[in-house]
Every structure is written in structure tokens, then in C-alpha cells.
Amino acid sequence: MIGIIDYGMGNLRSVQKALELFGENPVITNDYETLLKCDGIILPGVGAFPDAIDNIESKGLDKLIKEFTAAGKPLLGICLGMQLLFEESDEVRVCKGLGLLKGRVTRITGDLKIPHMGWNDLEIKKMCRVLEGVRDGEFAYFVHSYLAVGMDEEDINAVAVYGTEIPAVVSRGNVYGTQFHPEKSGELGMKILANFVKLTKLS
């Protein structure tokens, strides 16, 4: 079973519907024990980093996420959910993230329309399990104003160029993240979600 973490922010139902296309019956919940029993969990997110991390910590879900990933089971962070995996963010105020990946989250700068919204092609830097079957140059759907910087280069699997290189797919061990929304990214997004489903069968 795949758990979709409900911490009060994110398009939970759209992620759930996408997973149902693969015959999955994902559960949307914030119950610690239920999530801990899942084969894989997804951390979605729409909104501001400080609100999200405050909600996560108030429900004890930060401890759940760390315990779950320490057990070697796969986690996928989507959009803001990916950003929460990093050490800190300066969105609105400086605050700590989950610290599962090295780096911090900061606002996209330059003479660009913000938020970065719409379709952008991906440049694959290093393959990982969620990118299996994805070709260089395929397009994904983005909606965000912040990006990860100061990352370990080994953790960057694909980037999108929007004035600068934006980490678009990241991973470390059993922890994965996409800056874009796979559930809104057509064929590419379905490949990524299908790959994540496969990972949950191996855990």
C-alpha cells in the first residue's frame, strides 16, 4: 500500500487518482501507524514552506518520515514536498526542513516571470530508479517560485533550465523528489509514478 501524507497542504486527490490508474489503492492519511505500515509514501505539497513544515511537525510527521526512510522504504516528495526534504528554506523566514537531502531552498532570481509555471523540458544528469524509461528532453509541468541550491551534485538526477539550472529530479538512496508535478505531467509523469509504484513492491 502507498500512503499519501495529509498534513493539510497539497493536491492529495490528484495524486491519489493518478496512482489508481496503476491499480493501486493509496490511502490519504496523517496517522503515524498507518503510514509506517505502508510500502511507500508520497509527500505532496502546494503552498509556503514554513506553513508546511509547521503542520508536519505539529502532527509528528517529521519523525514518521525519518523513521520510515531510515527503514529503507521509498519516499517521493512532489513540488513543495521535494523542497521540504532539504536542510532549510528562506521562504518567508529562515526555517529548518527535514534534512534528508543536503541543500537549502531559495527564491528563483533574475529577469524571469515568477512563478515558473508551465511545461519545461528536462536534462537528465544521472539516471535513477524513478527515471527509468524517461528520455532526455521530455517535458514536465512546473509551478514554483523557489529552487534548491547548495546540493550535493550526486543527488541531482535531472534539471530544468529556467534562467538557471533548477534541480528537477533528485534522489539519495530511497528518498526521491520531483520539483514538478508528475500527476500533471502526462506521459513523463506517469512513467515516474509507475516507477515509484514498482519501488514500493521491492521494499
How much strand?
25-35%
Distance between the termini: 11 Å
Derived from helix and strand composition plus strand pairing, the structural class reads: alpha/beta
Number of helices: 6
CATH architecture: 3-Layer(aba) Sandwich
The name of the CATH superfamily reads Class I glutamine amidotransferase (GATase) domain
CATH third-level topology: Rossmann fold
Q: Enumerate the spans where pLDDT stays under 50 for 5 or more consecutive residues.
A: none
Which series of helices and strands comes N to C? EHEHEHHEHEEEEEEEEEEH
> What radius of gyration results from the CA coordinates?
15 Å
Q: Judging from the principal axes of the Cα atoms, what is the shape?
A: globular
Oligomer: single chain
Would you report the number of β strands? 14
**Overall pLDDT metric:** 96
Kindly state the percentage of residues in helix. Answer: 25-40%
Largest sheet: 8 strands, mixed
Major sheet strand order: 2-1-3-4-14-13-12-9
Write structural notes for this entry.
This protein has six helices and 14 strands. It has 203 residues and is of the alpha/beta class. It has one domain (2-202): Rossmann fold (3-Layer(aba) Sandwich), CATH 3.40.50.880. Strand 1 (2-5), helix 1 (12-20) and strand 2 (27-29) form a beta-alpha-beta unit. The mean pLDDT is 96.
